[in-house]
Amino acid sequence: MIDIELKEKLIAKIDSINNEELLNQLLRIIDLESKAHEVYDLSKEEAEAVNEGIAQLNKGMFISNEEANRQADQWLNR
Fold it and tell me: What is the pLDDT of residues 41-50, one digit of tens each?
């Protein structure tokens, strides 16, 4: 369980801060923590694209990373 005393200390410290930039940074950190627990729902199109990629993989329709890099280099005329 989260220590209530710790939360109270943090609230008091934050309440005493007058530096707007520091407060904004703290808010970003807290927002990141709360967003880390959110589940991203794929759109219908995204789910279809993922399923298409899995089907291609299962059919052996893929190339190695090295081959992809070689093709990219060739495409970029390197």
Answer: 999 999 999 9
